[in-house]
Design brief:
Layout lengths: L1 E4 L6 E4 L2 E4 L2 E4 L4 H6 L8 E8 L3 E7 L6 E7 L1 E8 L10 E7 L5 E4 L3 E7 L3 E8 L8 E3 L20 H4 L18
Antiparallel strand pairs: 1-2, 2-10, 3-4, 5-12, 6-11, 6-13, 7-10, 7-12, 8-9, 8-11
Length: 185
């Protein structure tokens, strides 16, 4: 596998080795030793899969105080995946990085604790996998405004399909500062 750090320190793009032959293909999607060697030390405890249609945007989501590291990838279709640094006192606070993920390349993105995450579906449908480092806790779930001008994400869609929670999300500037993660925690 090939591991590349993206524009936000700690956020990694992982390109798996895919073995193709006339029967189909095979790839390893997770190996604790290899990922640890790549700098990913989280103990992933839960796997989630979402299925979404074209134009759906999920995010910007994060968990606090039960923060979650995430390892994400597309199993079917194509999405634009976004990570935002929301750690108070971070030199990269409010900066974002976006990557197109698809089922053909099976590229993964590792998102450490302290970052918000979102994705929007570019294909007719997408199957999206989340491996997370702590159990889901509804009381810890938060959402930031997907089109917050302070963050300035350049989305590849103009009118996303959003759920109620994401429609009513706060901007980063209006979110209670004491509920954001802290750089260096």
């Amino acid at each position: 596998m090939k591991v590349t750090e993206l524009a936000l320190p700690g956020v990694l793009m992982i390109e798996p080795r895919i073995f193709d032959d006339d029967r189909g293909s095979f790839l390893e999607t997770y190996n604790a030793d290899r990922y640890r060697d790549a700098g990913i030390h989280d103990n992933f405890v839960q796997d989630n899969i979402s299925r979404s249609k074209k134009g759906v945007l999920r995010g910007l989501h994060f968990q606090r105080p039960h923060d979650q590291a995430k390892l994400v990838q597309v199993l079917a279709g194509e999405v634009f995946d976004v990570v935002v640094d929301i750690r108070r006192a971070s030199p990269n606070f409010s900066k974002w990085v976006g990557v197109t993920l698809d089922a053909k390349t099976r590229v993964q993105i590792y998102i450490p604790k302290g970052f918000a995450h979102a994705m929007c579906v570019l294909s007719d449908e997408a199957l999206f996998s989340y491996k997370v480092g702590s159990y889901y806790d509804p009381a810890s779930e938060h959402s930031l405004l997907w089109n917050d001008p302070k963050i300035g994400i350049e989305w590849p869609i103009n009118k996303p399909i959003l759920n109620e929670k994401d429609l009513g999300a706060a901007s980063l500037g209006d979110f209670p500062e004491d509920k954001l993660p802290v750089f260096g925690e």
